[in-house]
Amino acid sequence: MRYGLKVNPGTWPEATQWAGIAEDAGFHSLWTGDNLRNSRDAAIAVHDGPTLLAAWAATTVDIQIGLLIANLAYRQPAPLAKQAVTLDHISGGRFELGIGSGLWPADHAMAGVPYWPGPERADRLAEFVGSVDRLLGGDTSDHSGAYYSYRDAAMSPGPVQDRIPLLVAANGPRALAVAATYGDAWVTFTGAATEEEFYQASVERADKLDQLCTDANRDPASVRRILLAYGSVNPWASPDALAQITERYQAIGFTEIVCYAPKPAERPIFDKAVGTLFP
Length: 279
Description:
SsuD_RutA_monooxygenase; FMN; monooxygenase; Luciferase-like_sf; TIM Barrel; alpha/beta; single chain; flavoprotein; two-stranded antiparallel ribbon
């Protein structure tokens, strides 16, 4: 099992502190989100995700860095693909790009766009991810779709990596189809579900993803399975919580767990768990 740490820091000192902790401890990856504001409390400080990643790319050495997840509410395919290539160069080929359909109404409101109904979000995700996939692969031909358009695009220089990994956040069947078609990884998350509800849903979603990969003539094993642990799946809830989560979700095919940085009261459990994971 691989482990990543997701941090949404409010200050640059906090960002550098957690990057150092993640890299020194032995985490495989370091992530931040892509939100214009905290969805529940606007007073909580939030920084721009790609900008923060550029700083991490320049100040870390070995750890993978990534955006989890790019928010369709205020991103466009061609500019995001260009940002991804730039971050890949700054990091020396350590960047990964997650994309999701834009879950929080607060982000839509701040971006000045209406909150899209579920079917439209799924359609947008398919068109957006397909466009980014083509652009990162060097296909810069003009695109005029139902929701996104670009022309005269340029992807020079190209990525450092042969392929910048694309991660698709998906819980519903149509979004899972996008992950099966384009994704190097699938990311799933609890939302408001209880842990047991989420576990049972994860079993069903993993089976559905296998089927969709086969339908798309892809090896299901080629799509990494990433659990974004938060909410009712809290790795810092007890000293053995992360070990229990690992055992349970590894058994149904998950290969990576991305954990949110602990709250201050959870830090002793975090330190102990990390010491066990990475002795």
